[in-house]
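pinging the channel bc i need a second pair of eyes. not urgent but kinda urgent?? the chain im working w is below, pasted from the shared doc
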Amino acid sequence: MNATLPDPNRPMRELLDEFPSARRSLFAAFHIGGCQSCAFSEDDSLAEVCRQHDLDLQTVSQTILQSHEEEKELLLSPSTSRGSSTQEKA
């Protein structure tokens, strides 16, 4: 993994900007953020969200990082996608 674990003291707003897949991974793995009863404020820190939902901070951080790395592998740069379509046409 290339990225580092998210800073647990940063507001969720900043964490979600840095790790866009975090919202999906939090909901999929821990059912956090999908409805009013499991929602969080974007002003809360990751540590606060984990405390509120009785979750292990290290596990949640690793889940966010893993999801981020997996999503990065799915992304194609424009030059990569252009190159492959050129090769396919040839």
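so Residues 19 and 68 are 6 Å apart (CA to CA). and The radius of gyration is 16 Å. — does that match what u expected or am i reading it wrong
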